[in-house]
Amino acid sequence: NRSLGDQLMEGLGARGAEIAPELEDGERCSIVSARFADRDAEDLARHLNGHRVAVSPRGDVVRFSPHLYNDAADIEQALGEINRHAG
Fold first, then answer.
1. What pTM was estimated for this model as a whole?
2. Who has greater pLDDT, 1 or 63?
3. Which of 18, 40, 50, 74 could anchor a disulfide with 70, C-beta 3.0 to 4.6 Å?
């Protein structure tokens, strides 16, 4: 799960997201919350959920929760849908 979280964090960062809150390696789990300065969290979450990427909006962040049933292809799908979302 942590490796999926790491892949997700790297991809989100490459897309301009701020990881919230930033935690040290020993404090993290696979759950990743991201804030995009140029996108509404509710709108982005609606887009992702509509394209089979399960996320939760939490205020101004989108919460991703990769788990045992996910793999690297799921992370790439999520990142691809973020690319397709018009911010």
1. 0.86
2. 63
3. 74
The confidence score (pLDDT) of residue 67 equals 85
- Supply 21's token pair: 């809150």
Beta sheet of 61-64, edge-to-edge order: 18-19, 32-35, 61-64, 55-58
DSSP state of 17: P
Res. 23 pLDDT band, cuts 50 70 90:
low
> What is the rounded CA–CA span in Å between residue 85 and residue 69?
25
Output the average pLDDT for the chain: 89
For the chain, the first-to-last Cα distance in angstroms comes to: 28
Determine phi and psi for 79, rounding to 5 degrees. Answer: -65, -40
- The neighbouring-strand residues paired with 57 are 62
Number of C-beta neighbours around residue 28 at 10 A: 15
